[in-house]
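Q: Joint fold for the lines below.
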Amino acid sequence: MTRYVILGTGVAGVAAAEAIRVDASAEIIMVGDDPHGYYSRPGLAYYLTGEMLEKHLFPFNTKDFAQLKVRYVRGHAKQILRETHQVEIEGAGLLHYDKLLIAVGAQALRLSIPGAELEGVAKLDSMEDARRILQLAKKARRAIVIGGGITALELVEGLVSRNVKVTYLLRGDRYWNNVLDEHESRIIEGRLKEEGVELIFHAEALEISGRKGHIEALRLLDGRTLKCDFVAYAIGIQPRLELAQNAALAMDRGILVNEFLQTNDADIYAAGDVAQIYDPLSGRSVLDSLWGPARLQGFVAGKNMSGGRHAYIKAVPFNVTRLAGLTTTIIGTVGRGRDEDIVGIARGDSETFRALPEALETESNFDVNHLRLVVGQKTLLGAVLMGDQSLSVPLQKMIIASADISSIRPTLLEGKQPIADVLIRFWQEWRQHDSRA
Amino acid sequence: MPIFDFLRAESNRHTASSAGQVVPDSARCVQCGICTYNCPIGIDVRRYAWAGEAVVNSRCLTCGECIARCPRGVLRFEQTDLFVETAR
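A: Joint structure:
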């Protein structure tokens, strides 16, 4: 009987367990230190706004895990002993493995300014964090949110819906500048202002001050002092690399894996936010922090751990999310450069989003319905779609399939006709003739 | 007249929606469960989305609540031919 040990209880780990379970005799053990086990991390945003109750964020119940015949060990994996095929679990001793999956995800980077340790400073990384934010929000009157990307807006929106007055600090001159273009940033910022959020640009938090452990104010680099009683931040995430580092596995920004999701140790695999994966689009190994790819990677790793030989081909990344209440689809390469509000990568983010080659762009706007296309020589390389989502699925399919758009390229770039209409007509034609539609 | 209009709208809605089913696109789903939470008759729509299967449940009203509430455009109606045949 082969023993499979999965480190991490996120979606990659669960998907791997499902893939391994095809072998009825396999012994599967999941190890995790999150007291809540497997839940929808992206769903925490809707828990904060009050659209969801905590108990509904768990996709699997105990019966599901029993059916999968997964043994769950709660504890922190301290180190991997490759020579003896063992994992040391804090408080639970040594655990033997035949095949091991590292799917421990990524963790929020900590704010490192003075005062960051005060009660009333929060990040949004886990269910525990979300609970704490809701607890703090009950008493808070004025909150400051620091950071960028999707998570920072989730914090802003969560707090606004809990009737907390929010000031949102941005280091640069606009929101998410390496994925969104200026027009798109302004759409989001405008909507935040409508919700009563105060935005301060070129704001660098210097210090949080308080008394008896409670926050009283936040001081900016330019000398201004902002009164507040709550500070929430999302300044990026970092793959949890301690285990791989101590076990001397090959790594860069994440754990490096081959197309079979195998590390440089043939019995150890990695999947999800912790893994750094070869991207045929950009020709380099990149980090994604997306739920869909994490699930697929976990599944492929599980298949390969249990005797399969399936290559994981990293697809064009896409994310559908809500930014300031506006449904937004981001597909492929749409931006470049660095976002001052994020260190490295954020949740819901892909490094591929920012690998924009020299390409032409075209866009159209109708009030809040916005579409931007990144147009390559023969194909669409990326798109940002805000508001009306009728084009979301067509764009996803055409970009992933590298549909040849030569016939409409001049019309798209000319900009005389509404590009959404041109695209819909093309899509209707294309889907008739292409099996990938 | 308003009441009559209201009833007519209701009956239209049922006729229109009964020939369809809710279909997920799993690649977009993050298992948040908003669909399941908002289903008026308690169908675990999220489970279908995980499995990538159409919501084949005889109790489904095809009311569209799950489709409208999903924040990521995972769910859509797909027309089925089921009733087209009998209508002919």
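Q: Anything notable?
A: The longest strand of chain B covers residues 20-24. Chain B has one domain: 2-87.
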